[in-house]
Amino acid sequence: MNEQVNMSATVHPDRNILTEYSFPIKPPFKAFHVQKQTARMLTEHQRGYVLNGIGTGKTLCSLWAYDYLRTLGVVNKLLIIAPLSTLMRTWAKEIITNLPHLRYKILHGAKVRRLTQLEANVDVYIINHHGLNIISNELLVRPDIDIICVDELSVFRNGQSKTLTIPLKKYIKHKVWAWGLTGSPCPRAVTDVWGQASCITPWSIPPYFSHLRSELMIQRGPFGWDAKPGAVEKAIKCLSPSVRYKLSDVTEIPDQQLLYYEAELTNQQKDAYEQMSRTAVAMVRDNVIDAMNAGAVLSKLLQIALGYVYKRDGTIVQLDNTPRLQMTVDLIDACAEKVILFAPFKSAINGLHRILESNNIKHFLIHGDVSPKQRVEIYNVFQDNPNDDRKVLIAHPGTMSHGLTLTAATTTIWLGPITNLELFFQANGRTKRIGQNHKTLVAMVGGTARERRLYKLLGNNERIQNRFLELIEMETELKYK
Predict the structure, then answer these.
(1) Cα–Cα distance for residue pair 350/325, rounded to 1 Å
(2) Beta strands of 96-250 (E only): which ranges?
(3) How much is the pTM?
(4) Is 392 in contact with 336 (CB distance < 8 Å)?
(5) SS3 call for 87
(6) Strand (E) or helix (H) holding 225
(7) Which residues pair with 218 in a beta bridge?
(8) Residues 53 and 200 in one domain
(9) In the predicted model, is pLDDT for residue 251 greater than 90?
């Protein structure tokens, strides 16, 4: 366990959430030890950071801490600032499922709509990162909103961003309670902590970015900078007080955990998906589709959901798939260790390559056109060279041989499901092998009812080939929940 907690700033030394709070969670689940200790740190510090790894339950820890402080009368209303993709699917879902006594309102849409939503008398307001800048003036005159929780804090690593970091600094400086959550505090460089700390604990960093950069990095040429030895540890100390647990510290979960992450389809995807779904259902009812060709129809639906659709002539039509790509980038940023990223189509693999390049995420790329010799070289560097800073390996699952060991990675991300159970099982096994010293996570990204169903069948070790017609015949959903 790697826990960083500065207990010198205890706010309520005579109160203890561990003995005074029930940690409500829907059975059969129970609060992890790691979650309880994380919630304890938050209740004992008015400003602090949760740097726990992906899959450790940071969301619920924060809600429990707020709920406890609220029952003590220490705080009133909570504002959660989070990625757009998590407002409903993560934060609101946790409230509905585990803390239904808390009233919440999502602040999203045009400014007029957000202000109308803000007028609601609720306990928790949930807004997206960029939304804060839209209604920051109206939020500033609401003293009843007196506790702030910033999810995926590393998004604010650019301390000079006029639409993100600067509005957050301006807003938080008026609040006593403010927490920052991120599983990867240094996603691009050790100096990423400067922008984050400038929002939550500005007293813990030098006043100027250049001063921190000089402390942590060595200049190489006119534009290049390399981290000094021990720079990561020094950078993390800038985010204090904090708690930092890894997924492997959670003893209550299995060695490999499968979690589903929802990325809503865009309107363009929804229209195409709905049209294809209705056509497919009609063809099944007219006996045009049978078990032999249902797979092709299901494949087309999956292509639409991913955002890359093959035409008959082999060309590709790209649909707006921003939420799914952003969800994937957010998941990568939340991972402290290396990541394997799978996509079922070459078009999607190339799309991932472009989005990672645009976000300056260094990575390897493997698909059918990469020679066996090149693949071996890539695998060797990814697995055995700790000095190589390429964090992600993008691949088609079919390129991974059965005996391949890639335990340098602890997280496997699927951009979308596949229909081959054996391939799914083998691909997930690349990180869960002898030599793996950490628990592993399989993050399954989807956005439709059929994708959720596919992932469930795969997770239950059911062969998809035998369920094609059932999947095609599922009722078309007008709203993808």
Answers:
(1) 12
(2) 104-107, 124-128, 145-150, 177-181, 217-220, 224-227, 242-243
(3) 0.82
(4) no
(5) helix
(6) strand 224-227
(7) 226
(8) yes
(9) no
